[in-house]
Structures are given as C-alpha cells and as structure tokens.
Design goal:
With 153 residues, the protein is an alpha/beta fold. Helix content is 28%, strand content 18%. The longest helix has 10 residues, at 27-36.
C-alpha cells in the first residue's frame, strides 16, 4: 500500500459508459482499450503514427489532437514516451479544456504535463483527481506540492 494514499479517502468512481481519451495509441494504449471494453467506455485516441485499421479493429475513435481529446473525455490517460513532439502536450490550453470532474492519469514522463497548471486545477477542486506516477522524471521528487494536494475529492 502506498503510504501517500489514505485508503479511506479514495473515492469510488464508475467507469461504465465514460469517455476515455488516450494520448497516443501504441501497444500499452491498445491494451488499455481492450481492458476498458467490458465497461462500455467510449474510447478515443490521438496518434498520427498508428494505422486507421488498428483503431477500427479495437473500436476506438481517432481524434486529431490533444485539445480535442481533453474537450471530449471524462478520463485522459497519457502513456507515451517523452519526445520533443510530446513535451508539455498536456499544457495550459489542454488542461483548461478538461471537463469538470475529469480524471487525469499520467503513466508517462512528467515532462508531458504542465504540472503547475495541473496543480492549479486540482487545488481549485475542478478536477476529480490526478494519478501522476512519474512527476518530472525519475526518480519522483516527493517535495512537489502537487503530490501533497488532496487529489481525492
């Protein structure tokens, strides 16, 4: 059990029928899409490098960019490698488009996320929670205020 998570305060959240946006659509995201299938989630992904047939085979809608993904998703999941083109992809504009109550899951590198803007949204209570497993590179810096914000509302 992670000592930073109070199990009594972790809220319950139903995924059934939710719109889930995946940034990129490589092997990990394709597996996530398969795992979400029984929940009836509407899965969308943006990835210019994956062939259309892969999206079709998995029943995933292709969206053109991160802004569209944020605007149309209840859950946004980042599982991409850090490259020049993916750096700060979840930027101030994208974060401003997240739906109230949205869930952000970042299993990528912290460099993909504008952490200060994300921290602002979490502090004001307009995001449900943020699961940021790799804040700002490795190893994870435990002194970031983002980690100490109550993310379980």
């Amino acid at each position: 059990m992670n000592p930073m998570i109070d199990a009594q305060r972790v809220p319950q959240r139903c995924l059934i029928g939710k719109a889930v946006g995946l940034f990129r659509f490589g092997a990990i995201d394709q597996h996530v899409a398969r795992l979400l299938e029984p929940f009836g989630c509407v899965v969308k992904a943006c990835d210019p490098y994956v062939e259309e047939r892969v999206f079709e085979e998995l029943g995933v809608a292709r969206v053109p960019d991160m802004l569209t993904l944020c605007r149309n998703s209840d859950v946004v999941s980042l599982n991409a490698a850090h490259r020049d083109e993916t750096g700060r992809v979840l930027n101030r504009e994208a974060i401003s488009l997240l739906r109230p109550g949205a869930l952000v899951v970042n299993t990528s590198y912290g460099e993909l996320v504008d952490l200060s803007t994300l921290e602002e949204r979490l502090s004001e209570g307009s995001l449900f929670t943020c699961l940021d497993l790799v804040t700002g590179g490795m190893p994870v810096r435990l002194d970031l205020s983002l980690i100490h914000i109550c993310r379980c509302r």
